[in-house]
Amino acid sequence: MLGCHFGRMLQVTVAGGSYQEGLTSVIQGIPPGISITEKEIYADLLLRKPGADELSSPRKEPDLPVIYSGLNSADTIEGGRNKNHTNGTPLTILIPNLDRHFIHIKQYQDTNRTPRPGHASYAAFMKYGADDDAIGAGIFSGRYTSTIVAAGAAAKKILARHGIHIFSYVKEMAGIRCPQIDEAVIREKAGSYKKMRCDYDPFFQQIYENSRITMEIRFLQKMKILAEIENEIDEIRQKAPELNHDAIIEKYGVHPVLNCPDLKAAKEMIDAVNRISATGDSAGGLVEIMVTGAPAGLGEPVFDKLDADLGKMLGIGAVKSVEIGAGKNVKDMTGYECNDRMHSENSTVVFESNNAGGITGGVSTGQTIIARLGIKPTPTIDKKQNTIDKYTLENTELAAITRRDPTIVARIWPVAENYTALVLLDNLMAYYGYKAMIKAEG
Predict the structure, then answer these.
(1) Which domains does the chain have, with CATH numbers?
(2) Could you read off the pLDDT of 36-51 as tens digits, one per residue?
């Protein structure tokens, strides 16, 4: 299968499927000397996985990562203090599927003759034939995005060491839009939301905070523990703290369910989704990503423009549009309105607007990079739909499906954030390469 590889200086290859043994990220180009733990990776993965709230599907995958290669297994010399540091070899992260039961496989077997409208099931069958991994949609399932989140978690840690920070949030959902909010507030609220999710996630608390799995445990021992956890998923989930909305808002200042910095808008979004979901249907929306601290000069001309690289986030399932800066609104502007005029203050260039989203000519300007993703409604819905039998081409009807996400907007933002991290790190490595060459020749 082609198409599961990303990058130039930083390269990521992903594999696996929704109901295979699990999923894998292999990352090449991670520099040596980076301390990275499974706990840190899981802190991002838990943001993407289905929760126990009204916006999530019933699937209960814990998404517990296992770092299989790329780290020193011990100090390279006595007292070297570089155990569990990256060593420059490919970093491999495994994400086993633990909530994989025959009853759910049988549901797919019973419906796989009839492609689900809006899904890749018909196109995948035409491409791969009868051996297409159609159980749970395979690599076309939203589960594969866990590989992007895992790889991006490592990338974000490296970017932060260079003063580059990425944060994202739900900008719009079910027709309800978040009002304009100061960038610093969005960043602070996004951080608080992530902290809250870790504090309330039962697997984070019981597996990592309680040191049931640590970086000191060998791979085969971790597999034994994961086999135990597979039989304890419901028990662990039942130990999750109750989501007391008022207490969470008071302590963290964020909505308990939705990463939207405006509490009023977040509540209205969820209410709107619930109204749509009650009819058996689903909702879409917008996710916005912001990058601060990126130096001017990232990106290449023509085919490898930075905004073109970010446009590859169309590779995230359910993403149907990518906007940079003012996006499609530029069609209604004049040149004077659209141009980001600039002036100098104390030998520093100051831009008077950011309609370009921090990128001109495919190269970063040093401003905040802004991208927005248009997310389609979840195609799996609780309504009967016309379809075909893909083997006989007879017309038929797909029954309503109840095991579903009312919306996936609330789960896409961490994928977008971490995909952006991969793009930024790939370009940053090329940027430093250019700078080193110029300096050497100068």
Answers:
(1) 5-441 (3.60.150.10)
(2) 999 999 999 999 986 5
